[in-house]
User: Which sequence fits this backbone?
């Protein structure tokens, strides 16, 4: 099985209401449960990033497509990884997307 990086893109805020926060966590835990042993690293959300461009210019706020978090999974191929990502709870918000990239083992 190959490893794939899911990079979650979009900008939003974590729910502040306890019931909404619990519902969001339940959705993620349910999705991870469905993925089962395919989850290598459940990852984490990330804070606001900075992007360093050629010449040393720095963009704040993650640029035009900010990273929101990541997960690493195993799948038979990229199409399988894409299929697994389609149920990701982050996709319930139209402002978010999941980028999928194969992790290339360097040896």
Assistant:
């Amino acid at each position: 099985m190959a490893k794939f990086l899911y990079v979650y893109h979009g900008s939003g805020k974590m729910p502040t209401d306890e019931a909404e926060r619990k519902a969001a966590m339940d959705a993620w835990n349910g999705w991870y449960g469905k993925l089962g042993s395919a989850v290598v690293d459940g990852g984490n959300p990330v804070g606001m990033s900075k992007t360093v461009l050629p010449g040393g210019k720095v963009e704040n706020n993650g640029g035009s497509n900010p990273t929101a978090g990541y997960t690493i999974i195993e799948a038979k191929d990229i199409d399988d990884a894409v299929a697994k990502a389609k149920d990701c709870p982050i996709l319930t918000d139209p402002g978010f997307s999941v980028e999928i990239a194969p992790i290339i083992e360097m040896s």
